[in-house]
Design goal:
With 709 residues, this protein is of the alpha+beta class. It has 19 helices and 40 strands.
Length: 709
């Protein structure tokens, strides 16, 4: 039997490094291993990555040549910033006259606090003329004397005129220090924020370069020929060379790996992903099949780093219960792990004999109201996991499952103190725990205007069963635990797509300028190994900020999944009807391609126009897009330009807020081309033509339009 080609994902955590092998064709999990993260090895975390890979190949019976894709995510950059373990940055400011006033102020970045009592180590030097090689070299020598290990060049308006920053780097190159220019990090205006982002990037650059070189050499030595990719903080992956240039993109990539797993494995199109560990829960949003991304806050200040919008709550599977005045007053933030106590539900019934309730301070300075039980087998913590198991909310095959009878025995002493039964006591524990999580989920649902009729809660992480099922039960939202939830992060790394984002400030952007930004993003992901035929680019034009943004994604190989099961017509119809909250008999097929089917129905309201809700369902029976009211029309590639011009013209609205073209999506082959981020009709049609340019004239095209009010 031939061994399958595999995609390998490795997630380097603070304590453990998890690795998974996924079949490159079926995307099924073939193997998983866990090794201690090798922080103190002479090769650093690279040693643990290679050890995990070796064990994974041995477990699956695959050879290094069978690896079609290899990527890893790491907390190294995040930890370096949190711990203050960074390099001294030499910042060269450029400019004369008023420009010099602004650049000299950048020396204040040396006051940025990394950790308690630790500030960003920064030395500043100034040059008036970036083309004066002698002046630049004197500045570099000054910075080296002050301990600089990496250089940053920054000049006002360098996003439009990068020559000055580039000239400084060219003159400094003989000194052999790692270097970066502010315009290379972002093309957005804002000297202070742009330079701050570049400086933080530079501070972790030497350490990340060393790790990248070690991992690259080790993987090559192991015989793996697939290019090594690295997880980004926006849910995609990037080539190793790109990481060497912008290591800051790996900050906050841990939560991004989990939501990437939810997107690719669980096929979530609308909802919240909750990744629950022992101590906390990270909450992120998927809206219309895309992760919610925003500029991240780093070292207490906003940056130009586009990262997953993740909000953390101090409640996890190991969170301890707090009591006062005969009632449960809260759960967390301390966990059994921090207190150094075992979970009561994982003890034996014999160990739980003669249990008595007590309260403790897990750490100095904590309130003395955290519950423990002292029993025959020692002292144990009552946790969220104990309560979830006692109520039967943890599936049998789950990482956190235990004998429900033991869990009930663990809760029984507390129930007696509370003067209630075991089930009620367990419910009160979970209610107190998920109250904090629910508040954040509700806020994110409002912030991103999620469709509550179709939004789902998906739980990941080893503690998922302690939070997500009860939250779904109390909120009325649909909820489920992700398959292989305990390794959802490395699965996300293994399945992630190559991603690149290009942003430009272009006042009154023309069609040509918008298309140029799109083309730049597309070229960037292809240069990093994405198959050109499968690249998708989403373009957004923000008329308020004059920002043109293009996000390109693509796989390193064209995915020709040959899954053993595809949903049949009946299953897809039922999925659409369930999402539409109506009877299947009231749902009709409106259009379709080989990969997607468009379903619709009508809703009638008194004194209101008829609405036409639409759902797009893929061949696996997953709802990939939903619209509250849409127009659907089928044409061909040859006829599309004329048809789209008519549809966009008929659906464009005009008002005090300006011109608003419809939100347009095109179904082409296996893709849904999302053009909804463009409000101006002419650039919208130009982008549509760019999506069609390489297609056969007789290929079907389905247009789905939503009128903007």
């Amino acid at each position: 039997m031939n061994t399958p080609r595999i995609r390998v994902g490795i997630d380097v955590g603070g304590t453990f490094t998890d690795a998974v092998a996924v079949d490159a064709t079926t995307l099924e999990l073939l193997g998983q291993v866990k090794v201690p993260t090798s922080h103190h090895h002479e090769d650093g975390v690279a040693h643990g990555i290679v050890e995990a890979l070796d064990r994974l190949l041995e477990q699956t019976g695959c050879a290094p040549a069978d690896v079609a894709f290899l990527a890893h995510g790491t907390t190294q950059a995040t930890n370096a910033l949190l711990e203050g373990d960074v390099a001294t940055v030499g910042l060269i400011g450029i400019g004369t006259g008023p420009s010099a006033v602004f650049t000299r102020r950048l020396a204040s970045f040396g006051k940025l606090e990394l950790a308690a009592g630790k500030r960003l180590p920064l030395a500043y030097a100034h040059v008036d003329d970036p083309h004066d090689t002698s002046a630049v070299r004197r500045a570099v020598e000054q910075l080296k004397d002050e301990g600089a290990q990496v250089l940053v060049a920054s000049q006002p308006f360098s996003v439009d005129r990068p020559e000055g920053e580039q000239a400084v780097l060219d003159a400094a190159r003989p000194y052999g220090l790692p270097m970066t220019a502010a315009h290379e990090i972002t093309s957005l205006y804002g000297l202070h924020k742009r330079t701050r982002t570049a400086v933080v990037n530079a501070a972790i650059l030497p350490r990340m370069l060393a790790t990248a070189d070690l991992v690259d050499a080790s993987i090559t030595k192991a015989g793996v020929t697939a290019p090594l990719m690295v997880m980004r903080c926006d849910g995609g992956v990037m080539a190793l060379d790109e990481m060497r240039r912008r290591p800051l993109l790996t900050v906050l990539s841990g939560p991004a790996a989990g939501v990437a797993g939810a997107l690719m494995q669980e096929r979530v199109s609308e909802g919240a992903f909750l990744e629950t560990g022992g101590t906390s829960t990270d909450i992120s949003v998927v809206r219309r099949g895309k992760v919610a991304v925003r500029h991240a806050t780093i070292l207490g200040r906003t940056s130009y780093l586009n990262a997953l919008d993740v909000r953390t709550v101090g409640v996890g599977g190991g969170s301890m219960v707090r009591i006062g005045n005969g009632r449960v007053t809260g759960v967390g933030p301390r966990s059994a792990h921090i207190a150094g106590l075992p979970y009561a539900c994982f003890a034996s019934l014999d160990q739980l004999r003669d249990a008595e309730v007590d309260t403790v301070r897990p750490m100095d300075g904590d309130p003395a109201d955290y519950v423990v039980i002292d029993a025959a087998g020692g002292r144990f913590a009552i946790t969220m996991t104990c309560a979830a198991n006692a109520l039967g909310r943890v599936p049998e095959n789950d990482f956190a499952h235990c004998d429900p009878e033991t869990a009930r025995a663990a809760i029984a002493p507390l129930a007696a103190v509370l003067g209630t039964d075991i089930a009620t006591a367990a419910t009160r524990i979970l209610d107190a725990g998920i109250a904090q999580v629910k508040a954040v989920v509700d806020a994110m649902v409002r912030d991103y205007r999620l469709d509550k009729d179709t939004a789902v809660l998906v739980g990941g992480g080893g503690g998922a069963a302690s939070v997500t099922p009860h939250l779904a039960h109390t909120s009325g939202m649909e909820g489920r635990i992700a398959r292989h939830n305990e390794v959802i992060s490395p699965i996300g790394v293994a399945l992630a797509l190559v991603r690149e984002q290009v942003e430009r400030i272009v006042p009154g952007a023309s069609q040509e300028q918008i298309l140029a930004v799109r083309a730049e993003a597309e070229r960037a992901v292809v240069a990093q190994g994405a198959a050109a035929e499968g690249v998708e680019v989403e373009v957004t034009v923000d008329p308020q900020t004059n920002t043109v943004r293009a996000v390109a994604t693509g796989a390193t190989e064209l995915r020709t999944q040959d899954r053993s099961h595809r949903a049949d017509d009946t299953e897809r119809l039922r999925a659409a009807a369930a999402s539409l909250k109506t009877d299947p008999a009231a749902v009709h097929v409106l259009a379709g391609t080989a990969a997607h089917t468009v379903y619709g129905t009508h809703t009638h309201r008194r004194l209101r126009p008829t609405r036409r809700p639409v759902r797009i369902v893929d061949m696996d029976g997953v709802v990939r897009h939903h619209a509250a009211d849409a127009r659907v029309e089928t044409t061909t590639v040859a006829g599309a330009p004329e048809v789209l011009a008519r549809l966009v013209g008929e659906s464009t609205s005009y008002g005090d807020g300006g011109v608003r073209a419809p939100a347009l999506r095109l179904l082409l082959g296996s893709r849904i081309a999302d053009l909804s981020g463009v409000l101006d009709p002419q650039p919208l049609l130009a982008l549509a033509r760019s999506e069609l340019r390489t297609r056969a004239a007789d290929e079907p095209v389905v247009a789905v339009l939503e009128v903007r009010s």
